[in-house]
Amino acid sequence: MTGAGRDGRRGPLVAIDGPAGSGKTTVSRALAARLAVDRLDTGAMYRAVTWLALAHKVDLADGAALGRLARDGHFEIGERVVADGTDITAAIRSPDVSAGVSVVAAHPEVRSALVERQRRWVEDRGGAVVEGRDIGSVVLPDADVKVYLDATPEERARRRSDEQADGLARRDALDRSRAASPLTVAEGARVVDTTGRTVDDIVEEIVGWLTTSA
Fold this sequence. Notes:
Blueprint: E1 3-4, E2 10-11, E3 13-17, H1 24-35, E4 38-41, H2 42-55, H3 63-72, E5 75-77, E6 81-83, E7 86-87, H4 95-105, H5 108-125, E8 128-132, H6 135-139, E9 145-150, H7 153-159, H8 165-177, E10 190-193, H9 199-213
Parallel strand pairs: 3-8, 3-9, 4-8, 9-10
Antiparallel strand pairs: 1-2, 5-6, 6-7
């Protein structure tokens, strides 16, 4: 499958999944630059909804209310994250948001609303690099290449200086055990251990897979 945006532009479509600290953001950013396509960090979307919920004092256990926020909330995801007209790029990495995002993301109503927004985003652009936790398994199962990044727990904790190792372990458990779109290796995904590898090396490997799948 090759994406085709509304302007007819075509390009490769790459789905990148993996747990926190596996290198998704760094690799996806470098890969998108290499392929000259747009990039979407879907994790930032869930964090934006969590920030909005906290800002508007929405109960994080209220799936229906959170679903409406995910569907109708005013937020834009790019290299900067803006919600309700406020730049929240740094705020979505706060301890409060990090503590609540897996709870928010576990609600089926939230996931359904954001998956719809993510697919519309891809349709508008054609080729893209999309990162998250359910991209290859749910959002874009027909992507040209599906990649699952991982790393040792020690390496992941080192990379995520904003989050303690026990916090990462808690998020991993929540993400893998949730009923709606759990974190998993998608069918046909290529698993890459990023521990000790350079970003350029990983990007070259993915580009090679795109070439052979074309």
